[in-house]
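Hey team,

Filing this mostly as a record. A colleague (T.K.) asked me to run one chain through the structure pipeline before their review meeting, and I want the input and output archived in the tracker in case anyone asks later how it was produced. No errors, nothing strange. Just documentation.

Input sequence:
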Amino acid sequence: MSTITKTVPKSASVARRTGVPNHKARAREASINRILDAAEQLFAEYGYHGVTLKDVAARVGISSTLIHYHFKGKEAIFEAVWARRAPISARNRLEAMRRYAEEAGDNITVEGALHAWIDTDLNAQLEHEEQWLAFGKIAAQANSAAGWGAEKMTKYFDPVALALIDLLKKAMPDCDERTIFWGYHFVSGAMTHNMARTGRLDQLSNGLCSSSDFASIRRYMAKFMAAGFHAICEQSVAAGKNAGGSKKAAAGKRPAARKDPATRKKK
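Output structure:
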């Protein structure tokens, strides 16, 4: 079972220390959360560029003036949506990989590393779908978009990606770094597609499979991706050995020395 870390609002911690409930602060916090909940759903449905402040205000049932009271603009709301979800996801995944590395010791495997990286977010989708479904779609949009999307992924998830890369290097010490990064590129793309929940799989399989079936994704994905990592790394290692053998063979075949024409005997 995964553990979802929850942040405690500052107003709540102040109230606990002083023993005096800060009603104004709690009302403000509740108002902000309603705005962020609505914005998160809209960004998930229509993307960053498809949402306006008026859309958010209409979804909440308040005036645009109140939106501006709490946030400077749409980018500020979008950043706040990321700031309340992404650090929790990153922290939990880093902790899962740390625990796995500690437990595995010198026996780190590709599949084990991938389970630690993948399953934490999949568990969140399974166990706390209402909290994570919309943000999963937003993160999927960001991971497949240059510019604004890449900036968010870099800001919040680079340490998570690099932690996985580090585990994979330990699991495959003979594999070159370049090939491992390509493997990460492919597994990250697959994870993006999972979080998007497009329904494409449902349509193609005539309902036999569902893109929202995160239990099946958790059962199959790490094993499938591990096989891919092993395949491309074995190919890379073999190519490196062949290249090395070719160089040695070429070095061993030296051209015969030419005789100076002046020293040749005349017939």
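Quick notes for T.K.: The longest helix spans residues 214-252. Residues 6-11, 256-267 have pLDDT under 50 and may be disordered.
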